[in-house]
Amino acid sequence: MLAAALLTGALIPGAGPGPSAEALSGSEFDAGNIISDEVFFAGGVMNAADIQSFLNARVISCVGANGWPCLKDYRAPTSNHAADAYCGAYPGGGNDSAAEIIAKVSAACSINPQVLIVLLQKEQGLVTSTSPTSTMYRSATGYGCPDTAACDTEYYGFFNQVYNAAHQFQRYTKTSSSWNYRPGRWNTIQWHPNAACGSSQVWIENQATANLYIYTPYRPNAAALANLYGTGDGCSAYGNRNFWRYFNDWFGNPSNWVRSASFEGGSVAGWSASNGFINTQVYRNASIAQDGEWFFATNTPVAGRALTQDIRRAVSVGESATATVWVRSADGQPYRGTLAVWGLGGTTEGAKTDFVATGQWQEVRTELPVYATSHHTVRIDVYLQQVQRTLWVDNASVSFGTAPHRRNLLANPSFEGSFAGWGPGYGAINQQVWRDPNAYAGEWFAAANTPVAGRSFAQEFPIEFRTNDVYTFTIALRSENAAAPMTGRVAVWALGGNSTFAVASNFSVGAAWKPVTTTIDLGSSGARVLKVEIYMDRVGSTLWLDDAVLGRNLVRAGSFEGGAFAWNRGPTMNAAVYTQQSSGIAPAVGRWFGATNTATPGTSIYQDIAIRPMAGSTYRAEVWVRAAKGTVNGRLAVWALGPVNVPSTTSFTADGTWRKVQIPVPVQRGDHTTLRFEIYLDSTGTTLLVDGANLY
């Protein structure tokens, strides 16, 4: 039985930083995890233009042979393919480029286009060939070409090859138990088509790696891996080695970026400690391990020290790094810890998730969206927050993808530890940050006062201009004491376009926190910068500031400007738009408003917003409502849609006066793909007026 007492001994030999991406070595090849599921099934990570640019860069000067163009110049008609159990519909084209074919197949079959590009290179060398042949296009992905027989003529042709390879990968996945190679078990895999070369046992960790072995059922031997860019010996097979090598060289590590992720074989290569010494040990016990046969045990003599791994991978603005790790308390009692992800190089960015481990394995996940600057290294830390007790760790992973929607555009919105991003906007002011339990959000807030009335506190943020975009700025304010209230204005400026203008809201705050909100419609201004500004109109009072949010309205035509009702509606819903001139009713926002009624209670108008909200964020939804006559009962709802649909909702009763209905929209999961903004009508025979719908 494993003891929960303090472990002894130094850090296990071999722990240290991982190798640089430039020094690819065959020793890094993991036969059980050639490529992760997250990477393999990431359809759509490159569009046709991205793929075309990539192909152009591989072949600068194309010779061509026998009338066949290089892949970057290849074009052919493609036929429609109906959706089936494995792929969605493929829309044919009269003259599709190779890049368009790859992109459309990727989207239809949810296979990473990078996988298809690498497959074309691994099988026929098509991506880099300057003089391709008809045979190379005829059997481009090697589909229907067994090692022991001629290729099947039914699958000849570039489009057929690409489509059927992707289709087959999904067939392998969705009928996994029908194939010889399966994830989550030991598999016998030959070294070479010649059975006399022997075989080995491989624990396949995921479906994507199983798919590669079903497609090419051989494992590279030591000789093939020792000469990674050359040849091995008479028993060397190269297909899966070359797939892994090309993917690494062109797109980065296709498998889990964490080294010794499950500590199999007792390996801790890549892991070390930060903030000081910790005790470590690895154990082999398949009945306890969360993944495989081994797991890691650690404890610390000083709280706050961490188990660490640095991953040398360039991460650009707009990407995200997601770390997961499985943890368990060795003695079954609650154990507090923190999983953190850091972006190092440039402006350091970080994200963390606190956890309480129990006597059962649990997965902890942290996502770091990269918004500030690019980074050359991603660091994961498992912080040990308790002493004299042991934490078990297993099955760590880091994956990279597109950053989730950035709900708040401001830097350091709650002034946690600094003024970073903030400063005087108009004239010198006095400012300070305080760590205090009276903070409105987090642990810190800002305090400011002015020697001259009308000076301000501000932050600027560059934006990508889009006509009629609406931005909302909210900040919590209060006076330091009730005897000295503060008055002023909260403003948003549109700068850098064909006109400069601002929208402001007046405030008067005493010794209680009060959120103040201002919304700006950019119209056709061409603005390139937004400036949020808090003006202080009184000398001798100190203003506290916290929890600032600047967000773009995700609802399209939320105020119905221009006279269009660009919303989806239920089958019995009637809808129209009006101005004050056409209706005799003043809009709540702008010049137009919407009107809707229904013959069936519980039907709705709605919009679907295709974004991936970040877990842990909280959006705010609001809409102005009014009854055209009498009263109308309804509900405002925002659905977070995905594998699990989660609603946030509130009921309202509208009368003859405009009123704003608001709800917070907390996002607890990281796998939502859409937010639905929906207004239900529970009354019939009467009309609801709607204006200023906003989700930010």
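(ticket continues) Second input and output from the same batch:
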Amino acid sequence: MGETIRLTAAQALVRWLIAQENEEGDSFIAGVWAIFGHGNVAGLGEALYAARDRLPTWRGHNEQTMAHAAIAYAKQMRRRRAMAVTSSIGPGATNMVTAAALAHVNRLPVLLLPGDVFAHRGPDPVLQQVEDFADGTVSANDCFRPVSRYFDRITRPEQLMTALPRAMNTLTDPAMCGPVTLALCQDVQAEAWDFPVSFFAPRVWHIPRPRADEGELARAAEALKSAKRPVIVAGGGVHYSGATDALREFVEAHDIPVAETQAGKSALPWDHPLNFGPIGVTGGSAANAICNEADVILAVGSRLQDFTTGSWSLFRNPERRMFCLNVNAYDAAKHGAEPVQGDAKLGLEALHALLGEARAPAPDASLRETWFAAVDPLTAAPGPDDNALPTDMQVVGAVQRATGDKTVVMGAAGTMPGELHKLFKAGRPGSYHMEYGFSCMGYEIAGALGIRMADPQADVIAMVGDGSYLMANSELATATMMGIPFTVVVTDNRGFGCINRLQRATGGAPFNNLLDDAVHANESHIDFVAHAASMGAVAVKAGSIAELEAALARRGEVTDRPYVVVIDTDPDPSTPEGGWWWEVAVPEVSDRAEVRKARAAYETALKERV
């Protein structure tokens, strides 16, 4: 085995992580988020302290949201770097399960290091231990299994010799990328073993770019050559592959229109003549019209979730053929699509070469003009005599007018994903960051922190509703402590406005979504300005769209902490234009006539599904 060094398992793990680099020469694991408890403070905590000058450790306020910050960092870094997150056992660990699911759905790398029970089982049951009456090997960390791409429980120090390379391989594999969970038995963290010195030699991890099969490429190219109404669906894989330039060159050479998913938005600038805008349930009329009639669909780097496909009711041409260019075989073959399994950038370049001079019939440019003519008035500033409560669309317009070359607008859940997908005009790749794979309430503020850590020069604006803000806001205190500035726009519509609209659209009565429709002994009057300020943020209230614009214009004055702007909004209006059917099951039996009517419409829509 050669020269050895005696280290605890925790020390070996930390030393090994420090030695792992990406192709740019940076440590692949940029740092560790940690909330210590009895399950990790003595072992991993001591090891991180000793290495704090080489591997920074940051203290979060909630295990879930500090993991969200790590995931947002990886997303903004296009998966070229990632972070680790450690918690104690029990509730600290299970708090991270939601974040693991978020990373799993979005195919994003994060290394989760929850503490675990004693491997030697002497003190069983230890504080916070979950006991399975029929299986002595189960702990709370088994909850991570279905939401981890790779899971391992470290019960001996030497198991790191195999577990760590497997973990890193998963984090850097574009097809298998996702969360890795290494459950660290708390006694094992402190146990020592003679590790080979060679195990800690620096290693560069090259993210592979697998080339698609020649036959798959040829079939897709032939279909595109003969297509009369082709369309490209640009997904998040375009960004992760660094394929935005390749996409632009491809569509310009062959005159193929592009529709953008939530994850793919900003792949082309909004004003590119071949960018027909957002697709699907939260899509625009231009992209959806193109997709509805398309005879050849090339989905690039997309999971093809139901919001993209309109619950598979969008692509209605009976002669259509769908090809999926995706690095992951599972995604490439969804719903009978013809797979083109490979890297998005290399795949587009190969298809470009195979198509030669072929050009599709020019798409109808008037569709874009009609779309913008319909929605631009919705985002315009209200007149000085308009005393109506602002709409979310007007808030998006105010933010749009405040953006600059370095602005990144982000969000995750509630009303804003739909409005931003439809209305925000992303001017450059990476200027739009939406977590809509899991649409996880509470991602926004922590995500803004992660984005700013990934790009310290970015002007990050997080769009968050009052409901999502209340779910997870504590990383405002973390960002203040760390001196990391970003802007948060809180739209207070007094509840879960978008779900209230969905409830009514499916025939339901307003119930338990808006605060006024929930059981309460006292009316809810939450002072979000005071709340944000109490955690150290600079916070202001905007009483109108004009005041919101003035407040946003001053955000550059706050350089060492978050800047929070709160504005009251109307929960009822949403953009009426665009959109597509989304399958939400309506009860077959109800005393309410509204529900019975909605059920009839639902059954009709089911018959029309592709």
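Agent notes: The first strand starts at residue 4 and ends at 8. The chain has three domains: 4-204, 214-368, 380-568. Closing as not reproducible unless the customer responds.
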